[in-house]
Specification:
This protein is mostly helical and 148 residues long. The chain has 2 domains: 3-41; 58-131, hpI Integrase, Chain A (Orthogonal Bundle), CATH 1.10.443. It contains 6 helices and 3 strands; from the N terminus they run H-H-H-H-H-E-E-E-H. The longest helix is centred in the N-terminal third of the chain and has 27 residues, at 3-29. The protein is elongated and about 75 Å long.
Length: 148
């Protein structure tokens, strides 16, 4: 097994131990077992919860894009060029694209702060084409139905 598989299994084991501890504790509090020893003896397994870092090759990016319909393809391209989560570019408006700053402004998303993401030349050309002739309040990426 590779280290990532072991990490996943330990995390799953810790989830199950947490559920089992809660069941024993409730049984003790309700008087179904005589001692609290059962839930106090259960300990979690130490596990390092590091995030996985995955990079797509150019061929993998092409394969991903070939499977997407045009509106989704634009969103995926925007995410690939910016390195943002898919949810971040989906909230972008035309006004968030900085033609003078050479990037895009990402508003606060989930627990992360707002930030400015610099774009490579290809990404800048893509966003320039996408924003051309559009009003600042419009969403950059819209579905087939014209909605966000």
């Amino acid at each position: 097994m590779d280290p990532d598989d072991i990490r996943k299994r330990k995390a799953t084991l810790n989830t199950l131990i947490g559920i089992l501890r809660m069941a024993f504790r409730m049984a003790w509090e309700n008087g179904n077992i005589e001692t609290e020893r059962a839930w106090r003896c259960l300990r979690r397994v130490p596990v390092i919860q590091k995030s996985r870092t995955i990079f797509l090759s150019r061929d993998e990016c092409r394969a991903l894009l070939s499977e997407c319909r045009p509106p989704l393809r634009h969103l995926v391209l925007g995410a690939l060029y910016s390195g943002c989560r898919v949810g971040e570019p989906s909230n972008l408006r035309v006004q968030d694209f900085g033609t003078h700053g050479y990037g895009i402004f990402i508003d606060a998303f989930k627990r992360g702060p707002s930030r400015f993401v610099f774009l490579p030349d290809e990404g800048m050309a893509f966003f320039l084409q996408l924003t051309e002739g559009r009003a600042g309040h419009e969403f950059l990426f819209v579905s087939d139905r014209g909605t966000k």
